[in-house]
Amino acid sequence: MKKGLLYAAIASIFLGVGAAIASEAGKVMNPFLFAGFVPLLSVPLFFVIAVLRKERVRVKECFRKFRRETIGLIITRSWLGNYLVLFGLALTLAIRGGFLLRFEPVFVALFGFFIFHKSLGRRAAVLIAAVLFGSVLLISEGNLSILTSSYSYGDIIIIIGTIFYAYSYHPSKRISEGLNATTAAIVTNTASAAILPLFLLLFWKDLPTVIANFHYVIFQAVVSFTLGFYFWFLAFETAEAWEVATVISLSAVVTAITANLWLGDTLSTIQLLGAGIIMGASYLISVKN
User: Fold this and answer.
1) Full residue range of the structural domain in which residue 46 is found
2) Total number of domains constituting the chain
């Protein structure tokens, strides 16, 4: 197994738990302020990781040697991807938003093939399709009418955001390979937090609610934006972008399990079947590689 696929699987655990907590946080505080404070808190934690691992934070080199990739990563993930998806989720059903986000590995593979000239074999295409099918079962509980009923502007916004997310996998891989995961994460999260002053200006009346529920911010900063993104960037050092995107789909399984154990949600037989398909496809990717 490629070490990168193991890192992707670890990242999916942290990102999956983080998604469940973010869902709860969105019910009690302004999601835009939440999305701004979380990456801000994660940045100093990455400097701690850099010290512990004796890694040099190479931000200047990031912009000098990988200027195009860095700007592309900031625009597509830190800004457009993050906030389009966040805005879209506020305008549609959460269950359908979660389904649309599962198209990410499909878009990653398409970008890799048509723009970055990365070949994708038949086996890879089948495994990506299996993950997508498993996600449908896990998210919809077999009630496909929820996924196919009239679509809203929010759904379109989520799809556009997911496309930007998918594109970001490719510059992320270049930067992680050429420098290190810590540098890539610091640049990405700093750029995400840079929009916080604008949100504070627009939503300053919601700030007391954020402060009252700041434990959600701290948890998300540590679990998802620090540990999750650190292993996510590490995965690119030895794994292909489509492999990382597909294995990261395990996060949907982790989110469902977290919601079941921590938040009291129940899992149906169909959902368990969907989770099994996602885990099986991810296992087959790891065995082959």
Assistant:
1) 3-288
2) 1
